[in-house]
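Example protein as discussed:

>
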Amino acid sequence: MLGPCAAFDSASIHLAQDSVAFCANLRTVKPFLALVALVALPLHLWSAEVIEGEMAGYLFAPAEKVPEEFNGGFSLYAAAWPLVGMYPGHRFQTGLCGTWMHPQWSEAEKPNEKCYTDIEGGLGWWRDTHFPTITPKFIMGGVGPNFSFIANGPGYGAGTWEKPRGQYGVAQLSPWLLMPLDGLNLKQGTSGELFGYGYLPLPLTNKKSTTAGKNVPTGNQCWTLFLSTGNFKGPVAFFTPFFWSQALIEHPEWVGKLLDSCPAGPNKPIQMETQHVPAILTDKQARVAPTRFPIGTDGTSTVLHRLTAYKKEALWNDVQRWFDGGEAASGKIKPEAAAIHTFRSGGGSNWSIYPPGTKRDDKTPLAWNAFATSFTPNPITFGYQWNAQLTRREGSLVVLPEYFQLGTNPRGKPLWQVMDAKQASADAKLTQHRFETPKEKPQEPRTTPDDANSCWKQPGPVAGPFKAKLGDGSTVTYYWYRFADQPAMLNADLTPEEREQVQQRVEKLHRAWTTDRDYLTPPDLGKLADIDPALILTPPKGFEIGYVPIATRQELGD
């Protein structure tokens, strides 16, 4: 998301069906905000008693546009850090800096009816996360038209196993990295390091003239997640083309307009989307749970770096020739097929503090510019400078102001203005409050079907079970599957012959595209974040080529 911050949540995208539920992935909530009708609580009715509220909104990064022909994917480096000092419970949902990648439509190509679809995953925290810590996780966040399907990773998506709406949308590609069912874990303690990721299409499948037996075509763009981290580099997993094209069965008018075949718009919004940070309020004052940003030795914060858009031929043409029998493709992205966005001055925030039930237009913003100034230390890096009088430093993090007084901006509109803790209410209700991790029921395990006749068992794995104990306190059970026999591939609308062809192509990738070199261009500054070391795998002997690890269960403890 998260938009980026960009991100949402697979299991809770019931907003259209159930107005009580929120989107689980930050990226998904944005288009629904206008649909949520809540009852406002006017300021004059607020009690002098302390009430619970929240801080939420967007931070904006102003990126310059690149030419429209750079429509073959993107990559970026986003800072990863603990936004809050304690986990605030499952109402907490926010992304870090990221983006939304939509199909590229001209005015003439736009569908006549609403067709919201994109890839909007990223770093963050989501309400449906079962095993959260203050260290962010990463999800892929593919959104089928109008949230009909959500895929966040292999085995992780919307719906239920009885009625899946995305759990089979992502196929595991790497034999060296395990993708948990609860999102990809970063190493605990990550604090300001850069997490590099992006999506480029690969021709792993062939185009199909029919989709699920219907007379509508499916393209062959396999949007593949590439990572650039301290302990893993390379392709990880991809959205199967059928994840997008399955919507065409009921909506053939969208043929050619979804990401199975449509290019991606290169000029994307760059934002940090926050849905809930705990706050408390009285009639005129507010306090927000301590919120932090990474800070360097120079006192500034880098949050986004090297945002890049690609032409499709950056990888596609060389890989296609390779699959057709030509010379092996190196996996190196052609620099002439890449365009790096530059950042301009500006940006801003609409972070607001408000009590429960406040209508969207009645939310009162906080005076962000009083303590934060957008900063571009070089043209391809975006960050912030801080007012040292209103913020405080704690090691590698800067803590933003906690206390706010209700005032007005120069136009007379309500504005939360920063105030010192000493100015807080005389009864000390604000200052004595403690933001703590709430007591919650232990999260249920994430599981997959155990039916002996299911696609998880037929033809089933070739090795396992194995276990990985992660830094978030959970244990993942996983098996090794032949690539073409993993559940996602069995649900990708491919014949056995078509799956075997993809198997052969993936075996070529496994032999040639190893993790000991760069795929995405390395960052020009900073240090790369690490993935949880427990997720970095060595395939069992005999299963080094053509096999992938698939998580089947994730639970607390052993």
Remarks:
- Residues 1-558 form one domain.
- The radius of gyration is 23 Å.
- The chain has one domain: 1-558.
- The longest strand covers residues 270-281.
